[in-house]
Specification:
Blueprint (H helix, E strand, L loop, with lengths): L1 H8 L9 H20 L7 H13 L5 H35 L11 H15 L10 H20 L7 H25 L4 H9 L7 H19 L2 H7 L3 H6 L4 H23 L5 H13 L3 H25 L8 H20 L1
Length: about 350
Amino acid sequence: MQRASKHLSKPSTPTGVRWSPLVGSLFLLLAVLVLATGVGTVALGPPDIVRAVLHGVTGQLSGSGDTIIWQIRLPRVLLAALVGSSLALSGAAYQGVFRNPLADPYLLGVASGAGLGATLALVFGPGLPWPLGSVPLMSFASALLSVALTLLLARRRGGTPLVALILAGVVLGSSASALTSLLMLSERDDAARVLAWLLGSFGLSSWAQIGSVLPLMLFAGAVTLTSAGGLNVLQLGEESAAQLGLRTETFKVVLIAAATLSTAAAVSVSGIIGFAGLIVPHTVRLVMGPDNRTLLPLSLTFGALFMVLADLAARTVVAPAEVPIGVVTALVGGPFFLWLLRRKV
């Protein structure tokens, strides 16, 4: 019995994944990636994209079409997919840990912390040495610091109560947002740049940005996906999960740390993009059910799909101008959140 309990408690790989919808979502994502890469001022078809990718991999770019796809569109589309998948997967993990479908990746102050760090870099960056003047690095470090402080403040003897964790995150997040607003008011010349970053954009996407966040996202994503079994056990309640052998405190801290790392990496290269980590996992849960062995991988694929489509809308709706992607996701996520709130209250 004890051996069986230990087996149940271990976060396992998602062997219970419903493979048909997952494979279908991957094919759908591939189609959307091709569509988004081809759409723009210069329309390019799938053969052009395949040729440009082959030329780019071999270092033999030739012609404007290859350059447009390999240097401009493909990095942007892939970065949007990475950010969307990271936010949605982290949102699913947060909702599982807190056992609340209204939780999102920014719950513990990641967004506000990242916003404050980016604002400091944008306002004072020219006079600061590297890496203090780097917006991505400052936002990433500040996001992690904010969540670390939240965990420290919520810590109690014998554990980390979820209510204390949420309250500490709200207080620290509000404080960081207030400092960000104060800096924007005191440095009005930089306010437009700060606001543009806060609203999110993939306009400056590059292969270098992808290379900087991909290892972090892969590591954090692997930890989260392999925690699916443990998350299912945790849904029974912390006491029941502990009786089954799950080390609940360690499990929660590790999973929150992985989700936070992934979210911080995403925010550092895209700005603050709201609602993706809330609406995608909850929609998948409504359609596919609560089993995290299916929910987590499908949240990852549909998060990527959602963000690529949102970015496509952001750069085409009022072309040649561009709408901040945070505005697009808010216009979709706001009504969804209100509907969700009405269902839950």
